[in-house]
Structures are given as structure tokens and as C-alpha cells.
Amino acid sequence: MNYLAVLSVVFALTSTGVTGVLGNPTIAQMMGFLKQYNTDWSFPRVIDIANTVNYSALDPDVVGRVDITNTFVGAELNTEYLFGMFSSFGNDSHTSLIGVPLNQTISQLVVQGNTIFTSLIVTFNWTVEIIPVQFNVAFMFNDAGKVIEYDAVLVRSSWILPLVLPKMVPRLAEELGLPVTTDPTFLATKRAALDICAGHEQFCTGSLTQYNSTDACIEFIMNQVPFGDIWQAGQNTGICRYLHAAMLSRRPAVHCPHIGPTGGDMCTEKSYFDVVLNDGFSRKFIDLPGGLTVEQALHLADNTSCSKTGE
Fold first, then answer.
1. Which residues form the signal peptide (predicted)?
2. Number of C-alpha atoms within 13 angstroms, CB side, residue 222?
3. Is CATH 1.20.120.80 what the domain over 27-275 is classified as, yes or no?
4. Separation of alpha carbons 267 and 304, rounded Å
């Protein structure tokens, strides 16, 4: 098949009205978002955004997924997870087990149709050390240039706690009145239990109560669930409940169940297969030139391959 024949196939496919593009934002709108987000997702700016409980750059029905946690639906919930959580950790009176973003650099960027694919190197302050972390993110936009979906992956997440936790030991041991020879994971679990259960006592009252007492809460966090690693921040772990405790003050009705024994709809056991095969997105991050579907593009590739072999 010659080049003109390939073009005719493209025209035939695209003229059917099949399109993978939901919105038609301008590149200025999309890059404007990325520039603003790079400013907003930094401490202490996250505090101002968190107080709005509704980040204006997000569509009201936005769906966002962060691989180490969960899939979040709606602007309010996504604002809490992107900004509210870090605003609390940055103001923690005790040693925070989670760092806060300071600034970020774009290391890779592809813009196609209504989608940005980017790799961000984010400088995080973990109190005991400043470290770079890498987020690979896909952002999808509507006609107004607002984010309707995003999919974020924290690259090499399993390296982070082993890197920073040993350096937290002296501070945690001093705060908790324990020897510096205490196991680092025990120290982290104890710090998390005290913070989670203090938040429960303050915000989860009346019908929102999850534990019969603070002692029962501490016992559960310390002994009934594993503390977990950062990549398990959306599972039935102590670290998942620790993340949600940071959001109790703004919307306790939403987050009190997440720190309780059941984990609500966030801190629960998840099937590997369900997580991999069900991404929660109604629109896929597929945006090919001419609005082609994957099948149509592969058909073009097949035809082009045939021409190379002389068939």
C-alpha cells in the first residue's frame, strides 16, 4: 500500500465522525493549568487551596487516581487529597511521617489533543531530609481548560520510607519517650496511632464515632492492621488511616469512617486484579491524530507493514 493509499484510509476513518477527543482546549489553557498547578501544589500555598475545598482548575465532576492511594470523584474530594492533606502535614506540631511538596520541575512533557502527559520532579520536605520524588501524570481537559480526569503514578514509591524513616528515628524516639534503638516501624506506627486517635477524639464524635475509646483506637492501629508502606496508602493499613486523619478537620463526616476499623470506602483490602483491570475512568487516555481509535491506528500500522514487505 503506498502513502496516498494510507492517507485515503485515514480520511475514510476520520470522516466517519469517530473521535477520541472529548474537549477541545487550547494549548495555552492546558499549559496555563500546568504552570498554575506547579505553583499551587507547594507548601504553604496548599493551605490556601485547601481552605477553598474546591480547586477552581478542576471540573466539578473530575475523576482522579493516584496509584498509591485511590480513585477520587468530584472536585471537593480531589481538592482534599491533593491539597488538604499536605496542608495538615506541613502544620503538624509533631514529626510528620509524610513530606510536603515545595516545588516541582517538568522533566518530560507531551501535549496531544486534550491531554497532557508529564513527568514532574517534585522536591519534598520530609523534615529530616529534602528529597526529589517523581510523579508521572496524565491530565485530560474539557473545552474550558479544566481538568476532567488525571492519572498519577508515584515512581519508585517503595524506596521512599526506607530512605527517610531511619533518619526520623531520633526525633520520633524523643517525642515518644522511647530509646533510639527502637524499631523504626514501631516508632512510625506509634506516632501514627497517637495522631489518628487524637483526631478521632476531637472530630469523630456522636454518630461519627468509630472506636469506643482512645485506647481501643490505639490498640487497633498498633496491633490489628499493618502500618504499611507508602505504596499501600489506599489499603487496610495504618498509613492509609494516617493520611485520612489529616483531613478530618474539614470534613469529618466524610473521613471519620476512613480512620475507623472498617476503613470506610478508602482504607480497605483490594484485589490486585481489580486495581489493575478497573481504573475507574469513563474516558480513556487515548488521543490519536485525526481522532483515530486504537483499533483504527493499528489497522493503519498493519497496512503500512504490508507495504514494506511488498504485499
1. 1-20
2. 14
3. no
4. 48
